[in-house]
Specification:
alpha/beta; D-Maltodextrin-Binding Protein, domain 2; 2 domains; two-stranded antiparallel ribbon; 10 strands; elongated
Length: 335
């Protein structure tokens, strides 16, 4: 076979590899945004033919995989600070905003509202309140026939941005929690049983009468799990409604030069839901071609996926934030 023919075959093979790479994007990380990422991926493939394969493995796994460069993008509900981004040579931007709820399984109540004060939530997760009819819970739930049933805690067993945001809130509002447990993607839970991913914790709650656990609101809504009414930073009772989640998101001050680092939990406002979080995308600085393909997907999501995000209980990013992200990606040769 001639050298010319060999060269032609090699170029053809390389072109085929490039075509395959361009037709598939691999991402991994947070389970918090997985429902909307799956929907966006389905719609994007239908329109462009490009497959977005997203693995819901938890924020800790997503950070590890993008730092190891084994995926095209990582996803984390814990934003990385500028120093960590610089050390790992990563870009970061938010994709969508959501909320973490306390979902529970009490069929006896037949859907009646349960209010849980900050002090009660802290005590439940510390293991010092162990029954649903505890006087401290009953005090805020007049007229609700709380059952004499043991409380079972369901928590995340994997490295989780949902855990990081939930424990950030607990750590900020609970002195005892701060002193004994603290915050992190993983913590030493005083009581309870662990499940992997939002999916695992959701299943544990569904299967365990008397249980309570922290999950993204989209998982609770999809599985018809009731969500506790919580207290705002001002002490008023608030539900995880779109309006109350948006109230927290409205306080965000996104800055591209800081990798859009922002924590939305415990934001002020009497109508502000207390456990709100943005979820973030991580890209390797040096992979310009791959980053541009990932950027196309999220541009599609920002422009055409807002309605689908709202249907699932997420809050799309406001237009000025999207414009700031687009400028940030262009500046960093990722668009």
């Amino acid at each position: 076979m001639s050298m010319k023919m060999n060269r032609m075959l090699l170029l053809s093979a390389l072109a085929a590899v490039s075509l395959v790479a361009a037709d598939k994007i691999n991402g991994a990380g947070a389970s918090f945004p997985a429902p909307i990422y799956y929907k966006w991926a389905h719609d994007y493939q239908a329109q462009t033919g490009v497959q977005v394969n997203y693995q819901s493995i938890g924020s800790g796994g997503g950070i590890k995989q993008i730092e190891a460069r084994t995926v095209d993008f990582g996803a984390s509900d814990e934003p990385l600070e500028a120093k960590r981004l610089g050390e790992s040579k990563l870009l970061q931007f938010p994709a969508v905003v959501g909320a973490i709820c306390l979902a529970y399984n009490l069929p006896e109540l037949e859907g009646k509202e349960v209010k849980l004060s900050n002090a009660v939530v802290e005590a439940i997760f510390l293991g010092t309140i162990t029954k649903w009819n505890d006087p401290k819970i009953a005090a805020d739930n007049a007229g609700v026939a709380l059952p004499d049933k043991a409380i079972t805690i369901a928590y995340r067993s994997d490295g989780s941005g949902t855990t990081w945001n939930f424990t950030y809130w607990l750590d900020k509002m609970g002195k005892t929690w701060h002193e004994k447990v603290g915050l992190g993607k993983t913590v030493q839970w005083p009581v309870g049983i662990g499940g992997k991913g939002n999916e695992g914790v959701t299943n544990m709650i569904k299967q365990t009468p008397g249980s309570i656990g922290y999950i993204e609101t989209a998982y609770a809504a999809k599985n018809n799990l009731p969500m506790a009414t919580l207290q705002s930073a001002e002490g008023t009772w608030v539900k995880a409604t779109t309006e109350n989640i948006m109230a927290a998101a409205a306080n965000a001050k996104w800055k591209g030069e800081e990798g859009f680092y922002q924590i939305l939990a415990s934001q002020p406002g009497k109508n502000t839901y207390p456990i709100v979080a943005a979820t973030f995308i991580l890209l390797p600085q040096e992979k310009a071609a791959e980053n541009k393909e990932v950027s196309k997907f999220f541009t599609f999501a920002f422009e055409k996926g807002a309605a689908e995000a709202e249907k699932l209980g997420y809050i799309p990013l406001p237009k000025p934030t999207v414009e700031a992200i687009e400028a940030y990606l262009k500046t960093n040769n990722a668009k």
